[in-house]
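Write out the 3D structure for:
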Amino acid sequence: MPHDHAHHTQPTYLAEMLDLDAEIFAAALQGVYADIEGLADGPVRSIADLGAGTGTGTFGLLGHFGDAHAVAVDASDEMLAHLRRRAEQMGLSGRVTTLSADLDASVPDVDAVDLAWASASLHHLADPDRTLAALVPTIRPGGLLTVMELDGFPRFVPDGTPGGAAEARAHQLLAADRAHDMPAMGSDWGARLTTAGLIVEQHRAVTVDLTSPVPEAARRLAVLGLARIRGAVVDRLAAGELRAYDALLDGGADDVRHRPDLRVSAERQLWIARRPA
């Protein structure tokens, strides 16, 4: 992820972004949960959320699969604490177990689940093929692994409008960084899943394209997202690009907090794969 630019501790800052992202993608995710249910070979009663973050997948899946229990796995104790607080607020504490584990180091020893879920987490792995192979035994024979991965970060300002070119340039720089820092981002995860011994049952895009009037969560996500990206690329934007970019956040006429043309355009890739029975 890009480096932090706002005056927040990173876990708190990232947690807020993940929660806002969950709100923006909520409707699209309902379709994903329905796809999983349609492919499942029986009731989904046990779930492992791998790289759970603030629990977007955990709580969405528990809402859809009413008899399920989830194990939420993450390397960040701060994220898991946030997830436990949310579970308590939602009355779901009895259906969620948290487990602190770094998937780069080792795959946790858990009972084999009906469904493993990995959303925007696999591209962070140092050796995703090794980890995927190790994850297969955590899924029961006939069970499913669902992978959702980023194509890139959301866009907020339409092309051809004030700040649009500057945002596009920042994303171009960020994509180059990710190609170096996170080479697995944008992978053909279908091929990786097949190599791990799974059978890919579905692959499709999951898109969000919100236009005016956007919900308040979209404006907050735009502010945090643009500030976060700025911190990663500020020293490489030309002076004119930086002025145009900063105008998106400085409270003026082009600020995304009140622009009528603000949009949220984002795409994820979805794979649903089965462990052979």
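The chain has one domain: 10-274.
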